[in-house]
Specification:
single chain, alpha/beta, Rossmann fold, 7-stranded parallel sheet, elongated
Length: 434
């Protein structure tokens, strides 16, 4: 009977089948009745009367035949479900639970997540349990590690962050995703490259385009959602950094080099400074119900996306709800000593003010952090200027990072207005969001 619960989407088809079976049965009954009334009195006529149970009252006959028919229909549905759906059901899961979860995710909100690095992958890993309509927009300014080597030697856009996001969105992270994340040793002759980076590189050569290679990789991994590059241009991240307490300013090029400068970052920009955004990324932002910025490295993961002019303009124009997810802790080389307010002001200084409807921060600061790392807390000044919501968002195993499940659940509760500060609801009503 649980198959008849609302929202699964099977009742209409069960009803259609039952109507068809009933009409077929009525037609067959008329055919048999015609034979019974017009056939000559032969040896098989008494046998037909016995099969028709004419020796019983009609209501009793209806119950007997109806019960046998219903039993066959239920048995047939049960067998059909087992045969057709068993290949798609994970071991230990029930068919109904699998179908219910799929239908719920299929009707989930259209969410666009902007960022890169470990923070973005963590968020996607939690969101995929709530909706299939996810679009991750990822920076292509990475120039370090395996991605940087491939970028230099082959000229491909850096696939590292995109690979991590595809893996996080995969429907099966047990084996195939681990293979995708597998990194060869330096002594293997592959310079420490990850299998996923090499796979995307090979597909780029086969398909002739980087975006098609990313799409095909998503199909291989059976991702719940899609991953898009912010731009298809070969962009580099540059920064002005103050050293020696502001007495000396240096100019640094390269996403991987900026955190190593160990100074106060004044501003960052892309070179070339006006790259065209990837059109599907613009379309996703304008069609979104919810836009999430962060978590991730402020200067080297989040801002490189929003520094693409068309992308930043699309975020400003979109009628979606916009949340900024503040980092749990400061990051060496980028945000030493930053409060949550400083994170928000830095974003606004680069892309404009009054963009976010809500700032989401962690409020569990009990665990001990590594040396030279501090909690990023929502102070009273931030709460006086913005709509802020705080909750326990940390992963107990690695407290300087978000917990994917906790973070995703809080976001979905806020979106559906099951919880949240009054200022957030007022902001929603003022801007006429649903």
């Amino acid at each position: 009977m649980r198959w008849l619960l609302p929202g699964i989407g099977v009742k209409r088809w069960i009803l259609a089948i039952l109507v068809g079976v009933t009409l077929l049965a009525v037609g067959l009954a008329y055919f048999l009745l015609d034979i019974y009334r017009t056939a000559p009195d032969t040896w098989w006529l008494p046998a037909l009367s016995a099969v028709a149970l004419r020796f019983l009252d009609r209501p009793l006959r209806v119950l007997i035949y109806g019960g046998i028919g219903a039993g066959f229909i239920i048995w047939g549905f049960w067998g059909l479900n087992r045969v057709l759906l068993k290949p798609f059901v994970k071991p230990g899961s029930h068919v109904l639970e699998t179908v219910t979860a799929y239908r719920r995710r299929e009707r989930g909100p259209r969410i666009v997540v902007i960022g890169g690095g470990t923070g973005l992958s963590t968020l996607l890993r939690g969101l995929k349990n709530h909706t299939n309509n996810i679009t991750a927009i990822v920076t292509v300014a990475d120039d370090g590690g395996s991605s940087g080597e491939l970028r230099k030697s082959i000229g491909i856009l850096p696939p590292g962050d995109i690979r991590s996001c595809l893996t996080a969105l995969s429907d099966d992270e047990e084996l195939l995703s681990q293979v995708f994340q597998y990194r060869f040793g330096a002594g293997a002759g592959l310079n420490g490259h990850s299998f996923g980076n090499l796979f995307i590189t090979a597909l780029t050569d086969i398909t002739g385009s980087f975006e098609e290679a990313v799409a095909e990789s998503g199909r291989v991994l059976a991702t719940r959602g899609r991953v898009l590059p912010a731009t298809l241009h070969d962009v580099r991240l540059a920064a002005d950094i103050d050293e020696q307490n502001g007495q000396k300013q240096i100019h640094v090029k390269g996403e991987s080099q900026i955190p190593r400068a160990h100074g106060q970052i004044r501003r960052v920009w892309l070179e070339p400074n006006n790259p065209l955004a990837f059109p599907p990324a613009i379309q996703s932002i304008l069609a979104a119900d919810l836009i999430l910025v962060g978590p991730g490295s402020l200067y080297t993961s989040i801002l490189p996306n929003l520094l693409v002019p068309d992308l930043a303009e699309a975020v400003q124009m979109s009628r979606a709800l916009k949340f900024y997810i503040c980092n749990v802790a400061t990051q060496s080389g980028e945000t030493e000593g930053f409060s949550a307010l400083k994170h928000v002001k830095t974003l606004e200084n680069h892309i404009g003010e009054n963009i976010f409807n809500l700032i989401l921060c962690n409020d569990n600061t009990v665990p001990t952090l590594p040396e030279d790392t501090l909690w990023v807390e929502a102070d009273e000044e931030l709460k006086s200027q913005y709509a802020v919501y705080t909750s326990d968002l940390i992963d107990p195993q690695v407290p300087w990072r978000h917990h994917s499940g906790k973070l995703a659940q809080v976001i979905m509760d806020l979106y559906y207005e099951r919880t949240g500060p009054l200022t957030y609801k007022e902001t929603v009503e003022t801007n006429s969001y649903n």
